[in-house]
Amino acid sequence: MNVTVTALWRHPIKAHGREALQRVALEVGKCMPWDRHWAVTHEATKADGSEWAKCINFSRGASSPRLMAMTATLDDTAGFVTLSHPDLPNLTLNPDSDGQAFADWVKPIMPADRRQSTGILKVPGIGLTDSSWPSLSLLNLQTNKALGATFDAELSMDRWRGNIHLDGLEPWQEFEWVGKAIRIGTAEFEVRERIERCTATTVDPLTGERDYDTLKSLRENFGHKDFGVKIYVSKAGEIAVGDTVEVL
Q1: Does domain 4-30+131-247 have CATH number 2.40.33.20?
Q2: Does the predicted TM-score (pTM) go above 0.85?
Q3: Predicted confidence (pLDDT) at residue 1 exceeds the cutoff of 90
């Protein structure tokens, strides 16, 4: 059975919405275009937009689970993002100038006992992923199915906030690719490391409510807290839904 790309996703504002793509052009040493291009600051943020910063500096689903139910649509040309959430009216904004409007909009779904969002920042040329190097995340549908079976449930892939979804692998087979190179479409990648997960993955991405303790199940049933792998673009090219994957 061929290993194929079933979905492509980008997250224009880190932890605040996801958007499906059909195809994307990638550059060497870069994240997926517009993925985690911006991030949301909070009251204790030390990041100033001059360099990559750790996720603790930003508002995210681990501490504010209702954020996980957000979706996004980016106008690549104008740079405007439209955010949607089941408990809020839609908001269209320019993240570079409308940070206060965003903070006012998101406040009703932020936990009162957590640090409140204060604005939006970016680091020119750098995606604010959870790794200090320019990464994309690759996820295996069958791994998700195996984890879901421990709850006797079907888990949404959206809870993992990945960039590339694959089918045609055995559960956990993607871990065997670490240290190897792969080709998708006309692009090539180094598979660098497994992704250790946080409590954001315990949230239903449709409702923003915690449902399944994914971390406990990963530990107890599989001996780790990892899901998916991080990859690095080593050869520029285009990838699309339906492309096959080749291990080089």
Answers
A1: yes
A2: yes
A3: no
